[in-house]
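Supplementary notes (optional reading)

For those who missed the lab, this is the record we used. Protein: GNAT family N-acetyltransferase. Length: 391 residues.
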Amino acid sequence: MCSEFEASPFGQAEWDAAVERLGGSVYMTWDWLRTWWAFYGRGCTLRLFWFEKDGEVVGLLPLYIQCVGPGPLGIRVARLVGANIPPKVFDPPMHPDFVASCLAMAWGRLQQECDVLSLGPVSEAREGWRRTITAPDEMGSPSPFKAAQAEVHTLFPLLPSYEQYVGALGKNEQKNRRKYELRLLRKEYPVRLVTWTQPGPELERAFERFINLHSRQWRAEGLPGHFGAWPRGAEYNRSLVAAHSTRGRVRIMELWAGEEHIGGQYAFAHGDRWYWELPARAPDERWSRFSLGPTVLMLLIAEAIREGCKWVEGGLGHYEYKLRLGAREYPVWVLRFAKRGAGPTARRLLARMIQGALRVGYHKLWYRRIQPRLSERWKRPQWSLWLHYDY
């Protein structure tokens, strides 16, 4: 499947330089897109849009088209490469002044071969997307898309030093951080904190330890954890780590108490920010009094500050503990463009009915309520059919 990337009129160096110039995320880099495509692009059609103005690149839009639904009654949906296994705050790299015009041009091409363009999640934290969401008239009148708020995501704005960062937290949280950040642990155990960044067998082994620790944590709660929730989750992430480590983007942090691996973080570094993928901590009751979750997150923040980063991308969802530790929340949106006409409208209505049935019957009832109560042999990653309809 990667051959379609290799056949594109521009290569990795050119694409990544444009991503960096436009302030794009690590999820829009060539390695991320190509790795995702190798795992999840089967049966899909790749469309890479490159927008220029007066010889300067002003936007990139990597998309795939997939048929969703039963045969001739199905619809063809265009989505961002990477969506939605798993969902991220993608924010395709575009100059803020040209987001609307780039989207209008892309949809003008795409509606010749698909029924729906589902674009997101994108964040209000990015000026260009915020302007497009709040001022849709820039796209023309009437606006050819509808914006639906999906949820929120968190960003940690970093300060020049870790001491300044902790000093900006609330008084209670300052007290907790100074109490728990390894001081109690060091009274009872020799403590080591290691950050792995260089490609090679040591990084690979560190990532395998992270997978094991993360999975142990979630199995203790009857859940599969990230690597069990998504199709081929562990294999896919191993490939991501292998691809990005050669470019110095991978960050695997390990916290050891004596000979026991008790905490970890998995992140990527790109541009002026870290992209926090997953935490892990030992589920054993004897470690609970050390506040490992917030402690290991603050260790990640300290390391990102040490590297000179300005932000940590904290992922989707509302979490009170992240806000207590200095994060800010921003709405994220999905922009949906739909082809007009009786036929496309009828097919979309059928797709929405199937989507609703899968959301309630499969995702909410079976996957979230029933499956966690079953033995391990009955637990499976999320059904690919449901993921195709979740657009």
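If you only remember one thing from this example: The chain has a mean pLDDT of 92.
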